[in-house]
Amino acid sequence: MASLSLLRRARVHAPWSAAAWRDTAFAASGVPLQFGAWVIIGAPWTVWEPWDVLPLLAPLVVVILAHPFAAAQRERCWAMLGLHVAPPGERPGRLRMDGLWRSLAYHLIAGPVVGCAALLVLAAWAGGAALAGITAYAWTLPQIGPYGQCALTAAGVLLLIAAPWTAMAVRRLDTRAIGLLLGPDRAKELERRVEDLAEKRAGAVDAADIERRRIERDLHDGAQQRLVALAMNLGLARETLTGVPDEAMQVIVEAHEEAKEALTEMRDLIRGLHPAVLEDRGLDAALSGIAARVPLPVRLRVDVPRRASSTVEAVAYFVVSESLANVVKHARASAVEIDVARRGDVLRVTVADDGVGGADPARGSGLAGLGRRVRSVDGTFRIVSPEGGPTTVTVELPCAL
Fold first, then answer.
1. Residue 92 pLDDT > 50
2. Of 379, 309, 301, 376, whose CA–CA distance to 336 is shortest?
3. 318: closest CA among 211, 215, 209?
4. CA dist., res. 389 & res. 394, Å (int)
5. Mean pLDDT throughout 171-195?
């Protein structure tokens, strides 16, 4: 297999192959541009006079032409290799120094080095052809005997064999240098990509919160009102109807109880989607409501002088709600303390209980989902719950916006 692969590569890079001529043409086409900057800098010195300012202006010309030269190099990659090199992410009409310095580094350092290598490729082709065909004009060199002709011919053949491989190496070196120095800065591209993803994630979180609020309003104004009306009618029928068979009355009573249970579940569902009191009156009122429903003594302290965004408030609300649900179900605690405070651009939520501890997000107690919800707004989630207790859940939410 190795020998077959070597033969295949040798055939692809044979002196008569299309790849060899493509790589050679690409290398040769870059020479004028790669030496252009030094030609501009050096040419005025050939006619320099003591009063001449052209040598002093030449570097400024190179700086002005740096971006057009870079664009020409990128276009050369696309035209000859089909390789797209995106330009640096610069604002239109502005010259960003990082892109300028990288462009100058190519035109003054990397480009001339590649240009010299390209000249070696051309010399290998020309020298190889001249030496391989020396027998055609050996009569003009009588001092070279038959053995010398054979040696020179063999050297020419070796040069012709090596030229395509050298051209390939120059092509790879040039495209890599163009990509690194004339293309986008990879570090800055990653930064922009991370910022873009963060904005998209924030937009998705906000959109999900808006959709939850819409569903909450639809359920509150639609299905819940119908259930209220149904429960009232069944209750009225249960209290006022007389002379109804016991079987029919039993059906009415059961339907009334089912309607009340459905109404309770509907209210819990609406409250879980997005409590209306949170949007209308803020965290203090919303958290007071859920604390009042917990069958444990709850000490609540809310110090939020300025309201955060609705998304952040919703996350804080659900942190407290889910934490209290876990305390009731698993902690066997006798008291809970909740502290919510905003300090600058950070909203800090702490829920502590005196239960048995041992809470672990990996056990599926809802803490893992709570952590994901907190991280969706770039918050931090930390739980300390040793065996025997106590358990403390601490969440910090950024609320600069």
1. no
2. 301
3. 209
4. 15
5. 80
